[in-house]
């Protein structure tokens, strides 16, 4: 790989943008494909698209010889709004699943290192923290406080930033009132999963945490290539 391609790849990584390197195994120039590049008409388009979707590198056979596709995707993040019991159960599960996890809650009685050991914790209002976190298409956000003063900004910001998953705790009636308050477009608001999580009949905080991480993983792995 030449230095210019390496520098371009490192720039994409630093900016938390996805990229795929296409390397001819028999030798030849290495091609860098950035997320969002137009792959229409590219014979490798479907394979490159699958690499973007799955994050898996692979060798593929082409008319020009074998190519190795190196997938370079940002590590997925999960931002939890609310230092609640569900978050306490969800944070370690998310870490095991490979997510960098952040908890945000201005209520200092709940957002304590003792309750969230080893987790990045911000005992501040979402509007003060989230803009600096750089939410992006490889970030999921779950609003779990039931408090509009805390959840509403976070949900709107996550939709604006294109997070791959946005979910909110609450009943359908609660969510209907939430939709009346939020100012995003109907199309954007339809992306909020509420009630949050995969419908497995979850009752306890731990069970709800399992349902949430299942929905998050499904959204990450089934998103369009």
Automatic annotation (TrEMBL):
Pfam families: XdhC_C. Residues 78-215 form the XdhC Rossmann domain. PANTHER family: ALDEHYDE OXIDOREDUCTASE MOLYBDENUM COFACTOR ASSEMBLY PROTEIN, MOLYBDENUM COFACTOR INSERTION CHAPERONE PAOD. This is XdhC family protein. It comes from Methylobrevis albus. The lineage of its organism: Bacteria, Pseudomonadati, Pseudomonadota, Alphaproteobacteria, Hyphomicrobiales.
């Amino acid at each position: 790989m030449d230095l210019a391609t390496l520098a371009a790849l490192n720039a994409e990584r630093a900016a938390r943008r996805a990229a795929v390197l296409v390397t001819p195994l028999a030798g030849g120039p290495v091609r860098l494909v950035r997320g969002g590049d137009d792959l229409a008409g590219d014979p490798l388009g479907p394979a490159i698209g699958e690499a973007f979707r799955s994050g898996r590198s692979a060798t593929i056979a082409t008319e020009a010889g074998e190519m190795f596709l190196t997938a370079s995707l940002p590590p997925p993040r999960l931002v939890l709004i609310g230092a609640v019991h569900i978050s306490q159960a969800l944070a370690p599960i998310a870490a095991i699943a490979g997510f960098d996890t952040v908890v945000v809650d201005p209520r200092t009685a709940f957002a304590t290192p003792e309750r969230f050991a080893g987790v990045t914790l911000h005992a501040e209002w979402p509007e003060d923290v989230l803009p600096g976190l750089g939410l992006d298409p490889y970030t999921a956000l779950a609003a779990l406080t039931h408090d509009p003063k805390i959840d509403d900004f976070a949900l709107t910001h996550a939709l604006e930033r294109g997070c791959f998953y946005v979910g909110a705790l609450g009943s359908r009636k609660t969510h209907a009132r939430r939709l009346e308050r939020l100012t995003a477009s109907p199309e954007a608001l339809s992306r909020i999963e509420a009630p949050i999580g995969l419908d497995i009949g979850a009752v306890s905080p731990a069970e709800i945490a399992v349902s949430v991480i299942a929905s998050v993983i499904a959204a990450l792995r089934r998103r369009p290539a």
